[in-house]
Design a protein that fits this description.
There is one protein chain. By secondary structure, the protein is of the alpha/beta class. The protein has one domain: Rossmann fold. The chain has eight helices and seven strands, in the order E-H-E-H-E-H-E-H-E-H-H-E-H-H-E. It starts with 7 loop residues before the first strand and ends in a 6-residue tail after the last strand. The mean pLDDT is 97. Bound molecules: nicotinamide-adenine-dinucleotide. Nicotinamide-adenine-dinucleotide binds next to helix 1 and helix 4. Nicotinamide-adenine-dinucleotide (NAD) binds next to helix 1 and helix 4.
């Protein structure tokens, strides 16, 4: 039995990186996959890859910062499939600068996507999930949302905030059958790291007891577990998946 058979899962930022790996893992586990991203070509490609794994997949160009777009996608999915069982709030960006250099635009943009976007999507699916008496919301935090990081005032605030959302919503929605958890990845090899110099990457690798960065599939595996009924008693948790870098 595939672990997500019969479920409808909506994944934001699913055109590449961890979001794409999660879409493919969920498809392998039998879930219908709703691929959402700002990149049309990436959405189309991800839908094809999911379909090739034998599941139904729908793709939407959806910017998580645009509430009307989010509401329209959720309404369409509800209309066509009747339910959303899992929301993976994966879309996220960085715009790094140290405190004294960070512009208000950099601050606002990262908060808008990483924090307000997560709020938009969760609020849009919450009524449907509580009405059906079941659902799972998974939020992408980061080790930076636990420990902070040089040059990431905006990103750290957003990822700490996501943990606050997770704990709050797990209290609010838990009694109605909806579980809410966060994953805090360490450094994972995706395009988000493309601006980081090689020297810094090798320093990062050295800080990890496993002596390597993570792969997107290694985060997707944890999302799949948390989305599945195997995690039926996991609620309000923040699961660090970092190769032990904080030990
Ligand atoms: N890669 C890492 O090392 C790492 C570590 C910790 C946490 N994370 C978090 O995991 C998530 C995925 O990271 P990734 O490395 O795969 O990133 P990525 O940059 O490879 O992919 C992010 C995806 O989100 C999409 N996106 C950006 N803005 C969007 C918006 N407004 N609406 C909808 N989609 C949007 C992008 O188009 C892209 O496809 C992010 O929330 C990130 O903060 C990543």
């Amino acid at each position: 039995m595939k672990r997500l058979e019969g479920k409808v899962s909506l994944i934001t930022g699913a055109a590449q990186g961890i979001g794409l790996a999660t879409a493919l893992k969920f498809a392998q586990e039998g879930s219908t996959v709703i691929v959402c991203d700002v990149k049309q070509a990436g959405v189309d490609d991800a839908v094809k890859q999911c379909e090739a794994l034998g599941v139904q997949a729908l793709g939407f160009v959806m910017d998580v910062t645009q509430r009307d777009m989010v509401d329209a996608v959720v309404a369409q999915v509800q209309q066509r499939l009747g339910r959303i069982d899992v929301l993976v709030n994966n879309a996220g960006i960085t715009q790094d600068a140290r405190l004294q250099k960070m512009t208000l635009e950099q601050f606002d943009r990262v908060i808008d996507v990483n924090l307000r976007g997560v709020f938009h999507c969760a609020q849009a699916v919450a009524d449907g999930m509580t009405a059906q008496g079941s659902g799972v919301i998974l939020n992408a935090s980061s080790v930076v949302g636990i420990y902070g990081n040089f040059g990431q005032t905006n990103y750290a605030a957003s990822k700490f905030g996501v943990i606050g959302f997770t704990k709050t919503w797990s209290r609010e929605l838990g009694p109605k059958g909806v579980r809410v958890n966060a994953v805090a990845p360490g450094f994972i090899t995706t395009p988000i790291l493309s601006t980081i110099p090689d020297k810094v990457i090798s320093e990062m690798e050295h800080r990890v007891p496993l002596r390597r960065l993570g792969r997107p599939e290694e985060i997707a595996n944890v999302y799949a577990f948390l989305a599945s009924d195997e995690a039926s008693y996991v609620n309000g948790a923040v699961i660090e998946v970092s190769g032990g870098m904080s030990v």
